[in-house]
Design a protein that fits this description.
With 318 residues, the chain is an alpha+beta fold. The protein folds into two domains: 171 residues, no CATH class; 101 residues, Serine Threonine Protein Phosphatase 5, Tetratricopeptide repeat. The protein is built from eight helices and twelve strands. A six-stranded antiparallel sheet has the order 1-2-5-8-9-10, with no helix packed on it. The longest helix is centred in the N-terminal third of the chain and has 24 residues.
Length: 318
């Protein structure tokens, strides 16, 4: 026969288990079915040097509709100033999808998201690293692109110009071939810049993203990473190899020596030998190369390929 005390303990255990299960269930995200949207989501990314630029947006289709045009009086009456008219629930048949002089989400569904990992210049004007909602105010002869510090809004219904981080002007271009689905592209791209193109219907609206000094930014990131990891010999070696690829032998040797000082390995010694050889310091290169091979053999590293390279160096084949 079960005692009252044991029964009480069992009841408590059962209640605790039920409560724990309920708590765990409450922590789980709700089960959802991903909807099918007429304007499908897309994302495009471009790296400039070490800076990533990502645009996430939804792609509405033309569907035979009027896209860019002046807003008729009936439409203007629904909004003051540049307030958005991008509301399909209020839009009447024949009214333009993107009326001139009004804020547009530059896409569909959620606000278009513009993310950049470092400070950049947009059409020559500074924009801090971060996430922004990207709006546009189209015009027949001139567009305004708006980078707003509220990246989580739906459309442009809660758009607040007081949160604008930057506005830039853009010159729209008329193209012959109609683009059915709105698309963003990066073209052309240079070592320190990329042109962003919004293409929809027969309109292309561009703006330029520029990294002011790609090499200086890369160096500052490398220095910070090395400083945060003072016992990691691979990081300064990676910097050395980057400088070597740029034929900056002085900086390459500086960083490979830093790597060797942290921990001498076949990898950094052979890298130093290659740098010295490329810099024209051949006698020093061969001395370091011999040390690299000895270190590799001591550490049971496969040195065969490097030994062949050193043999070619000595034979004057390189």
């Amino acid at each position: 026969m079960i005692s009252l005390r044991l029964l009480s303990r069992m009841s408590f255990a059962i209640l605790f288990a039920i409560a724990a299960t309920t708590f765990v269930a409450a922590q789980q995200p709700p089960v959802q079915i991903k909807p099918i949207r007429p304007s499908q989501k897309a994302s495009v990314m471009q790296t400039i040097g070490v800076t990533d630029i990502t645009i996430t947006y939804s792609r509405p289709a033309v569907k035979g509709r009027t896209i860019f045009a002046d807003a008729p009086a009936s439409m203007e009456a629904r909004a003051k100033g540049e307030a958005t008219l991008d509301n399909q629930n209020e839009r009447k048949a024949g009214e333009p999808i993107v009326p001139y002089s009004h804020v547009w989400r530059a896409g569909a569904n959620e606000a278009t998201l513009f993310q950049v990992t470092d400070d950049v210049l947009i059409n020559g004007q500074p924009l801090k690293a971060g996430s922004y909602s990207l709006q546009a105010i189209p015009g027949k002869d001139e567009w305004t692109f708006v980078f707003n510090s509220d990246p989580g809004q739906w459309g442009a219904f809660t758009y607040d110009s007081k949160k604008d981080a930057l506005r830039v002007k853009a010159k729209p271009q008329t193209v012959n071939e109609s683009q059915e689905w709105l698309v963003y592209t990066f073209d052309p791209v240079t070592p320190n810049s990329a042109q962003v193109n919004l293409r929809w219907e027969k309109v292309s609206a561009p703006f330029t993203v520029e990294v002011k000094d790609v090499k200086a930014l890369w160096r500052s990131k490398a220095d910070a990473l090395i400083a945060a990891n003072p016992t990691n010999e691979v990081l300064p070696l990676q910097v050395a190899n980057t400088y070597a690829a740029d034929k900056n032998w002085e900086e390459a040797l500086k960083f490979v020596d830093q790597s060797i000082k942290i921990k001498e390995t076949f990898r950094n010694l052979s890298a130093k030998a290659n740098i010295l050889w490329s810099a024209g310091r051949k006698d020093e290169a061969l001395t370091v190369a011999n040390a690299a091979i000895a270190k590799g053999k001591a550490d049971k590293v496969d040195t065969a390929a490097f030994e062949k390279r050193v043999a070619d160096m000595k034979a004057g084949k390189m």
